[in-house]
């Protein structure tokens, strides 16, 4: 169940706890031969609320007033709180850079099967210690490639998850600045795969400026079309060989 917390969120002081950078995480995975991904079961609901927080999260019905006992989905700082909590549970594993955690998604990576089993056991032991629940149907154990954060990650390459593409291409051309920023935000996420993205998107970013009138000229419509086409033709990015010399 997701509540309507927009009013409460406007009065909530933002928790600026940092999240892992997706692109750095994907690069980190390139060093792995075996990957296991795990997903926490209803992650936020596994955290109890403090008494003073419960008073702000009331549900008023004709049958009476009810209170949330656990963190609901939709609260402004819930992701930051969960990320901080999970980072304190696995400080050593995260510092050794073989465990990656983005909110409720955890990824274990190793370059040998025996080491992978050892690391997997370490994580499961801590999961059991803190009584964390894992969603088995969303887990992938010991894979050499898998889907992560809208990408297909393998030992050799990094590609875009093509299942994400059709829905985006069906959307109509943006009619205002908000729609254009949403379009650019999605494509910017995959900019490493899109040749000359910065050049193509320059004119589109310009009309999102507050001082600029939104107008889709022929030049901008052409740039918009080229960016969409680039997504369908996006190449696989080969992972670097870290054990050889780089020439810059």
From TrEMBL:
SUPFAM superfamilies assigned: DNA/RNA polymerases (SSF56672)
Domain of life: Eukaryota
Domain named Reverse transcriptase: residues: 4-186
Protein name: Reverse transcriptase domain-containing protein
Lineage: Eukaryota, Fungi, Dikarya, Basidiomycota, Pucciniomycotina
């Amino acid at each position: 169940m997701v509540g309507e917390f927009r009013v409460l969120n406007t009065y909530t002081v933002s928790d600026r706890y940092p999240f892992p950078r997706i692109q750095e995480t994907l690069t980190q995975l390139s060093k792995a031969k075996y990957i296991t991904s795990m997903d926490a079961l209803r992650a936020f609901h596994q955290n109890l609320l403090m008494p003073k927080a419960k008073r702000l999260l009331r549900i008023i019905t004709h049958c009476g007033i009810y209170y949330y006992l656990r963190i609901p989905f939709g609260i402004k700082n819930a992701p930051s709180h969960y990320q901080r909590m999970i980072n304190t549970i696995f400080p050593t594993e995260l510092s050794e850079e073989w465990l990656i955690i983005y909110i409720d998604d955890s990824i274990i990576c190793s370059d040998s099967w025996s080491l992978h089993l050892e690391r997997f056991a370490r994580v499961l032991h801590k999961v059991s210690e803190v009584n964390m629940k894992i969603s088995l149907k969303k887990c992938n154990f010991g894979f050499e490639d898998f889907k992560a954060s809208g990408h297909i990650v393998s030992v050799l390459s990094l590609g875009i998850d093509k299942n994400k593409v059709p829905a985006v291409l069906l959307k109509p051309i943006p009619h205002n600045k908000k729609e254009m920023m949403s379009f650019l935000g999605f494509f910017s996420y995959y900019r490493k795969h899109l040749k000359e993205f910065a050049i193509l998107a320059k004119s589109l970013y310009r009309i999102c400026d507050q001082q600029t009138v939104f107008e889709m000229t022929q030049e901008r419509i052409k740039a918009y079309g080229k960016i969409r086409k680039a997504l369908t033709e996006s190449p696989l990015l080969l992972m670097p060989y870290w054990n050889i010399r780089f020439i810059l």
